[in-house]
Design a protein that fits this description.
By secondary structure, this protein is an alpha/beta fold. It has two domains: 242 residues, Rossmann fold, CATH 3.40.50.11970; 133 residues, no CATH class. It is built from 13 helices and 13 strands.
Length: 419
């Protein structure tokens, strides 16, 4: 069954905003994704804001209390939902359960469909699923795949070229996507990005409050919407704390897009300054170890090596490294970071988080990780990192190689507490 999204034979009128939400629940987040869809449906504005959703769920494998998720039982279903004129969100069409939400052409088709059906002055695109920074986003257990970071950047570029639309706000309701590598890869294909350096709980962002941003102010500017999402999270977390409820979001920031050239240049200059033998590798390693890390300071690779970029350069400035070139490059990178991060929410325990992480492992090329997909073997994060613009267009990966080699010569130490 399909709903009529506009009067046939007529060009649909432009909304102030169209919200395109890509909710990937063909994994262990299926229950939470359904709850997010209900929140979007319940709070969808009726004041000319258009909403379109593509959501994937599972029919099997859903956990009972205390039961582990079993990806072998997953049977997928995917559907599109949309706002009819003056009405709430309704089912638009059911798609084949074989539609892979972890496949970039699936995302591209949805975005082009939503832009064609719901033209608007501004577009908010949200991707809600598991995230992993440079490792990608939108895990599909049935399709056994994830949208890689380069594929995500290329998808947004394709959409821009085919429709003429650049997303005004790209929102990641996913873990660990507030990363320099992500912002650099997306580049000019989003005007603003909203993302978290840290993990987000399975319940995700407060969708009711986010939809409420548009209820009374449908003509908000893109920057105001990006900042408004951060404010909505801050207010929701304050209410949760007041009521003694568990936290859902620990950190999130509104980020300026289209600054990839500045960011990549600054990363390259700092990496270049840290490469010469005159800068002791052991001194750099000590700085890295002191730098704020994410993924709850856990032992999951490579996420434990996502470290706050500004905290890293601040620690470099305070370190025993005396190179003027290093100090100047660190200052320049911090200046770029401050230009990118427009507004940030920091919950308790998020001290020294400044809005953007960067990949800073000490064992680059020597890690093996599980991609979180059934039937998939171990992978080397270096292989995926090498495909990013950060690795291809800067010397950052060369710096990581140097640190990895230097760490082999370090005496073994006891594991330290969270950075």
């Amino acid at each position: 069954m399909k709903i009529q999204t506009h009067h046939s034979g007529k060009t649909p009128p432009k909304s102030e905003w169209t919200i395109l939400a890509y909710l990937g629940g063909k994994n262990d987040l299926s229950r939470e994704i359904r709850a997010n869809l209900r929140a979007i449906e319940k709070q969808s504005p009726r004041n000319g804001i258009a909403v379109a959703v593509q959501a994937g769920f599972i029919k099997g494998g859903i956990r009972a209390p205390g039961e582990e998720f079993d990806p072998r039982k997953v049977k997928g279903e995917v559907a599109r939902y949309a706002t009819a004129p003056g009405k709430r969100l309704r089912l638009a069409e059911k798609l084949s359960g074989a539609v892979n939400m972890g496949y970039s052409p699936t995302l591209q088709k949805f975005l082009e469909w939503g832009i064609r059906k719901f033209p608007a002055k501004h577009y908010l695109i949200c991707i809600n699923n598991h995230g992993g920074g440079f490792l990608g986003i939108s895990r599909d257990h049935k399709g056994k795949s994830t949208i890689s970071l380069p594929s995500l950047g290329k998808t947004l570029e394709n959409v821009r070229e085919r429709t003429g639309v650049t997303p005004d706000v790209l929102l990641f309701d996913a873990c660990l996507m507030g990363q320099a590598e992500v912002v650099a890869q997306i580049g000019k294909n989003a005007r603003f990005v909203v993302a978290s350096e840290e993990e987000i709980t399975a319940q995700g962002l407060p969708w009711g409050e986010i939809m409420g941003i548009f209820q009374d102010h449908p003509s908000l500017s893109p920057e105001s919407v990006a900042r408004g999402i951060v404010s909505a999270v801050r207010e929701d977390e304050a209410i949760r704390e007041e009521k003694g409820l568990d936290r859902h979001v620990f950190q999130i920031a509104a980020l300026k897009g289209g600054v990839e050239k500045k960011l990549l240049h600054a990363l390259d200059q700092l990496a270049g300054a840290l490469l010469p033998a005159s800068v002791p590798a052991q001194a750099i390693l000590e700085v890295v170890k002191k730098t704020r890390r994410f993924d709850d300071g856990g032992e999951k690779k490579p996420y434990r090596d996502y470290r706050d970029m500004v905290d890293f350069v601040d620690n470099l400035q305070k370190s025993d490294i005396r190179s003027t070139r290093v100090k100047e490059a660190a200052t320049a990178l911090k200046k770029v970071a401050e230009e990118i991060v427009l507004e940030e929410y920091q919950g308790n325990g998020m001290e020294r988080a400044h809005g953007l992480s960067v990949y800073l492992p000490t064992t680059y090329g020597r890690d093996r990780v599980r991609p979180g997909l059934p039937g998939k073997g171990l992978i080397d994060p270096k292989d995926l990192y090498g495909e990013t613009d950060t690795a291809l267009k800067t010397r950052w990966d060369e710096l990581l190689e140097r640190l990895s080699q230097a760490s082999l010569r370090c005496p073994r130490q006891k594991k330290s507490a969270r950075g």
